[in-house]
Amino acid sequence: MRTPPNDPNVLRHTLHMPPFCPRTIARHALVAAVFNTVLALAITVSGDQSFAANLLYSQLIGLSIWALIDGGRFLLSGDGWPGAPKMAGVVLVAVLTGYFGGSALSDLLLGRQPLEGFARFPKAMTGFLLMSLAAGVAGAYFFTTRAMLASARLAHEEALRQASEAKLKLLETQLEPHMLFNTLANLRALIGIDPPRAQVMLDHMNSYLRATLSGSRATTHPLAAEFARLDDYLALMAVRMGARLGCTLDLPDALREVPVPPLLLQPLVENAIRHGLEPQVDGGRITVRAAIDQGELLLEVADTGVGFDASVPPPNTTDSSFGLAQVRERVATAYEGRGRVELTSTPGAGTVIRIHLPLASLDT
Fold it and tell me: What is the pTM of this model?
């Protein structure tokens, strides 16, 4: 289950606010102490009591307010963001409580009666009250704005991710019927001329569809599952083509668990058979391999078919380029422009398609 964008834990991670982190608490306390010192200097210049007394008032009032705001926020929402209305109440209560509590404690430490400073130093105490209110409002505005921006950013990223997943699913639904209709047409022909081979082909198709339905529930699956899918598909084609089809699947053990979008290689293999090997009387061989190339994942589909001049569109452009066009779009969508698909072909010498994918983005 995905976490909704307004989940407090997601906001905490985005705003870098780990719960009860001593380092974060110490940093916040240091910022508050520095602000309190500056405030004490400003009030001393225009006030009516010593800097030492102003500093004591300022630190006890300011640190009390900071502790009450952070503590109130945590009590309301763990370590997330409770929302602007609740936070406004926290700020108001924290400012009033911290101000009067800090003032009373300062008076006691200075040998005065609690809250005596209000009567003896009205100018300084009024300055502390006004600055405390201003600092509380400014802090609340800052954190509210930051939380709202973070929430909006998370919602935007979630919408983009869902749109990307929907687009990949749409592309996959376009590819599945394409392969299925071709297979059913071949199966229909075999039923009349070779029932035993038709039964074997049907068994392979059941295995292939089972793996396909399982893979369709995710936007990625291990490269080993992609190769297993190809193995089923090639077994289907071997029933129809017999000795005319040779194939090699080369997947290093180190790459078996690398995630890739489902149904990424099968349309390329289908194109290679249909437009490369079947037109040749002797058929040919297909080689599918995975490797690491200059820090990228390289997926290669090569055939020894008829080939073509890559600079000239094939006669049936829509049909023959369907698989390649869809794979290009899937790579562009899933990897946000960081993957690429390359094609080289020579008439009479076959075709090679290479897919380069960024390994770093696949490790998550």
Answer: 0.52
